[in-house]
Design brief:
Elements lengths: L12 E7 L10 E2 L5 E2 L7 E2 L19 E5 L3 H10 L5 E4 L8 E8 L4 E5 L2 H4 L7 E6 L13 E2 L4 H7 L2 E3 L2 E6 L1 E4 L17 E2 L5 H6 L10 E8 L5 E14 L10 E8 L4 E5 L5 H4 L4
Parallel strand pairs: 12-18, 13-15
Antiparallel strand pairs: 1-5, 1-9, 2-3, 4-5, 5-8, 6-7, 6-9, 7-8, 10-17, 11-12, 14-17, 15-16, 16-17
């Protein structure tokens, strides 16, 4: 039997955006951590050959967003779209050649304020920039009555059930693909909440990459971050544990790397991560 939640009291809200265009700033160059100037794609639009389950590293790209990047054109509407969309929510194409096709929200990217949505390959081929997408938003406010020391964010109740979490005494046992030390977490620290955006795993320390097996981290991986609390923003806290999902790919820019959207946290360390290489959205939700 699954863990008790308050899902029967959560609101289900319709929010919407559209396929976002490819995004660059006024200066299209990225300056890498080793001093090179590069121009590469990654954020926005439809990435036809990158989906959850694929590697987060190795692409000729910066912050690559898997499958579809979506946002609302109006900035205030986009805040609601980003805040309320939860990982695992159902998305439906409302216009264009792919109208009626369904996909799944797989993450949120801060700064650019995109929601990432996975669709089957044949749907990706039919989508176009500007196509409208509706998201059946449910999950914000999800809670575990039997694990009050664990807070949940950005998590569709059906996805939470699919994660197969278990109680081990007073700890929530969670399957994760990787464990990451807080020492290498970078861009995204400092926000006052984790209901939008993400923060990045810096991949510049080769010894840590090797020790924690991060070289083969995948988009969609469920990961645990040691000594990190996300209750009211992202902070370093000894003994705390947070769990998130890898939502975008690597970056050569200082302070950046594969991004993680928060799903769970316990400032008291009441989450017990259990390594499982199949703890990836592509496997958990049978997306590939």
């Amino acid at each position: 039997m699954g863990l008790r939640t308050n899902r029967d009291r959560l609101l289900t809200v319709a929010v919407s955006g559209e396929v976002a265009p490819a995004a660059f700033g006024p200066n299209p160059y990225d300056i890498t951590a080793d001093g090179r100037a590069v121009i590469v794609p990654g954020m926005g639009s439809i990435n036809l050959n990158v989906r959850v389950g694929d590697p987060a590293l190795g692409w000729v790209a910066d912050h690559v967003e898997p499958a579809v990047s979506a946002r609302a054109k109006d900035e205030k509407e986009n805040i609601g779209f980003c805040l309320l969309s939860c990982v695992g929510n159902r998305a439906t194409v409302m216009s264009g050649e792919a109208k009626g096709a369904t996909g799944v929200v797989t993450g949120k990217h801060g700064g650019i304020e995109h929601v990432m949505i996975d669709f089957p390959q044949d749907v990706l081929e039919k989508l176009a920039v500007g196509d409208k997408i509706a998201v059946r938003s449910v999950g914000q406010g999800l809670a575990l009555p039997d694990a009050p020391a664990v807070r949940l964010f950005n998590l569709d109740p059906d996805l939470f059930d699919a994660l197969g979490c278990e109680m081990a005494g007073d700890r929530l046992r969670v399957r994760v693909a990787k464990i990451v030390p807080a020492a290498v977490m970078g861009s995204g620290i400092g926000r006052d909440n984790v209901y939008r955006g993400d923060y990045d795993i810096q991949m510049f320390s080769r010894d840590i990459v090797e020790e924690y097996g991060l070289a083969d981290i995948r988009l969609g991986d469920i990961v645990a971050i040691q000594n990190a609390e996300h209750s009211y923003g992202r902070i370093y806290k000894t003994g705390a544990i947070s769990v998130g999902v890898v939502v975008h790919g690597a970056s050569a820019v200082a302070g950046h790397g594969p991004g993680v959207s928060s799903l769970m946290t316990s400032g008291e360390g009441k989450i017990e991560p259990v390594l499982d290489p199949k703890a990836n959205l592509a496997d958990i939700l049978s997306l590939r």
